[in-house]
Structure formats: structure tokens, C-alpha cells
């Protein structure tokens, strides 16, 4: 990294830390994540260059994965027999969400059919943007619309769940802090597994690698304990920077031009997710707070992290968000092909 990059990184971390502290002081849920995302978003729109090196982003994903995985116990996994039902409901809601949002984008916001499908997708942003470039669509416009959805859900889901249902009070992570030796071993293993997952194009590769390594280690009782709180807070803050940095370089005029389109897809995505939550609540009788976080169409890492911070079953939340990405990998190209055939 150059000196300029180091200064930019220091400034970005400082802005994120300021947001985290302010949100913590006012009692905002998941303060490190939501506070950092808010202040970084504002700074980016105001013209501040946000710097986030790949190595730091990867490290944050690894730390989050390790901490989340420490709460995945055999008792937690006993409920996995009901997951196929809720995942099937999730798949149906994704298709309905894209179709409804696409109609509004083409009728009211001057999107062509293909761009509308990509902008309406409730997640898998990097994959959607790659398809956008390949299709020759307006990638910047799609990215801004999608970023509005991600930021809105990151800020609103913790507030909604904590105010409507309160904290569960469940301790999903071990009370004791992990020792340096096992933590070092798990970090090394996670980077190795994450690199393999990345080559295999597994979604959220390093997050899932951390969860897998940690779940195996804790299930076998070889690596008891969780990461220290400062490491988790730092990882949450980096996640906030990543979410907020999507607005970096966007002018107010650019945001105004697509803001209502972003609001539209967010509303449709949220309404369809809540409909799916209602159906699963009726069929399975799961906790509404758990279902809301599991079905919320936000960023995978952010939603899983929020689930842990609110004391919700980490395995259930992670499984549904990962499956959302897997399902979208097939749903989006299919709907894109259908849009092409209709011209």
C-alpha cells in the first residue's frame, strides 16, 4: 500500500469508529456495524475517498466466520430437519420478488427488461454486477439501486427485530474467550479453506470457511471459546465500511436519479420476505425474529452478524442466507434469459 492508501485507510477507519461510538452511545442495535455503515455512506457521498484493502476485508470475513461458527453446536443443528421447507418457501419468494420489482422498474423508472431483472435481484450483488457487465447493462445504476437496499436493511433489521421482539437473551456464543494457540491454528486453517472455497466459487467463501472450521473445532471440543470482543467489534466495523463504501464516488444528483427505484425494490423485497416469514411462521412455528433475520434480503455477512448480535440461531440464519445466494445463482440467469427472449 502507498502512503496515500494508508492515510485513506486510517481516515476510513476513523470515520467508521466515530459512527460506531455515536451509535453505541445512543443505544442503536449492532452499533459497530450500523454506525460505521452510516458515517461511511455519508462520507462517500460527500466526496471522501474510502479505502478498504482486500486483505482487511478478507480478515474481517474470517473473524466473523470463526465467531459465528463457535455457536453452531449439535443441539443447534437438530432443528435442521425443518430447513428444506423454509428454504423452498424462500426460493418461491425470491422469484416473486424479482418479477414484481421488475414490473415497477420497467413501467415507472425507465429500466429495460434485462437491467430491471438485475436491479431487482434481492442479493448476490457481485454476481449480479458481473452479469450486468456481460449483458451490457448500466452497471453503475444497478449498483446504486442495489446498494440502497443493502444499506436500508443493514440499518433497519436490527432496529425492527430488537424493538418488536427484544433481544432473545440467548447466549449463542461460548462465554469464555479462546486462547491464542487455538485461535492461531483456526485462523491458518480458515485462510486455507477459504482460498479453496474461493477457487470453487463458493459464495461468501471466507465467511463460510471460518464457520466450517470453527463449527468442527467446537463440535469436537478441540477449540473451546470465542474470539475476544475487540476482534468481533473490529470485524463488524469493517463490514460497515464495506457496505457504506458502495456510495463512494456517487454524486447527490446520481443518487437522486435512482433513489426511488432503490426504495421500490427494497419495499418489494421486504414485503415478499415478510410474506415468506408469515408462511413459515404458520407452517413451522419458528421464532418471528429468527425468520425475519434469516429471510431479510440484505448482505449475507451483515445479516448473519446481526443474527448473532441479537442472540439468534446462527446456523439457521447462515444456512438461509447462503441458500439465497445459491438459488439466485440459478434464478437470475433464468429470468434474464426470459427477459432477452421478450426483447
UniProtKB/TrEMBL annotation:
Pfam families: AbrB. One of its GO terms (cellular component) is membrane. The chain crosses the membrane at residues 6-26, 33-56, 76-98, 150-173, 179-197, 204-221, 227-245, 257-284, 290-310, 322-339. InterPro entries: AbrB_dup, AbrB_fam. GO terms for biological process: regulation of gene expression. The keyword Transmembrane applies. Keywords: Membrane, Transmembrane, Transmembrane helix. The keyword Nucleus does not apply. It comes from the Bacteria. PANTHER family: REGULATOR ABRB-RELATED (PTHR38457). NCBIfam families: Gneg_AbrB_dup (TIGR03082). This is Ammonia monooxygenase. It comes from Pseudoprimorskyibacter insulae.
Amino acid at each position: 500500500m502507498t502512503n496515500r492508501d494508508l492515510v485513506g485507510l486510517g481516515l476510513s477507519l476513523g470515520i467508521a469508529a466515530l459512527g460506531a461510538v455515536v451509535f453505541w452511545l445512543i443505544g442503536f442495535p449492532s452499533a459497530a456495524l450500523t454506525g460505521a455503515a452510516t458515517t461511511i455512506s455519508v462520507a462517500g457521498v460527500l466526496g471522501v475517498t474510502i479505502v478498504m484493502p482486500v486483505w482487511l476485508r478478507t480478515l474481517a470475513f474470517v473473524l466473523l466466520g470463526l465467531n459465528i461458527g463457535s455457536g453452531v453446536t449439535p443441539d443447534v443443528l437438530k432443528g435442521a430437519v425443518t430447513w428444506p421447507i423454509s428454504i423452498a418457501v424462500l426460493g418461491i419468494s425470491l422469484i416473486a420478488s424479482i418479477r414484481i420489482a421488475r414490473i415497477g422498474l420497467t413501467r415507472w423508472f425507465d429500466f429495460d427488461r434485462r437491467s430491471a431483472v438485475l436491479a431487482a435481484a434481492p442479493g448476490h450483488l457481485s454476481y449480479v454486477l458481473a452479469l450486468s457487465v456481460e449483458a451490457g447493462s448500466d452497471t453503475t445504476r444497478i449498483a446504486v439501486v442495489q446498494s440502497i437496499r443493502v444499506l436500508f436493511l443493514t440499518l433497519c433489521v436490527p432496529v425492527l427485530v430488537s424493538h418488536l421482539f427484544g433481544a432473545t437473551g440467548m447466549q449463542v456464543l461460548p462465554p469464555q474467550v479462546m486462547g491464542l494457540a487455538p485461535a492461531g491454528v483456526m485462523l491458518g486453517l480458515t485462510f486455507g479453506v477459504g482460498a479453496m472455497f474461493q477457487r470453487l466459487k463458493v459464495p461468501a467463501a471466507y465467511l463460510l470457511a471460518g464457520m466450517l472450521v470453527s463449527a468442527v473445532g467446537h463440535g469436537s471440543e478441540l477449540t473451546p471459546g470465542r474470539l475476544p470482543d475487540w476482534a468481533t467489534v473490529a470485524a463488524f466495523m469493517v463490514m460497515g465500511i464495506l457496505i457504506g463504501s458502495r456510495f463512494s464516488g456517487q454524486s447527490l444528483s446520481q443518487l437522486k436519479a435512482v433513489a426511488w427505484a432503490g426504495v421500490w425494490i427494497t419495499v418489494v423485497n421486504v414485503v415478499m420476505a415478510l410474506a415468506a416469514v408469515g408462511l413459515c411462521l404458520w407452517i413451522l412455528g419458528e421464532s418471528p425474529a429468527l425468520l425475519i433475520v434469516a429471510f431479510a434480503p440484505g448482505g449475507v455477512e451483515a445479516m448473519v452478524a446481526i443474527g448473532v448480535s441479537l442472540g439468534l440461531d446462527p446456523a439457521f440464519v447462515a444456512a438461509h442466507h447462503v441458500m439465497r445466494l445459491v438459488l439466485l445463482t440459478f434464478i437470475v440467469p433464468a429470468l434474464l434469459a426470459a427477459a432477452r427472449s421478450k426483447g
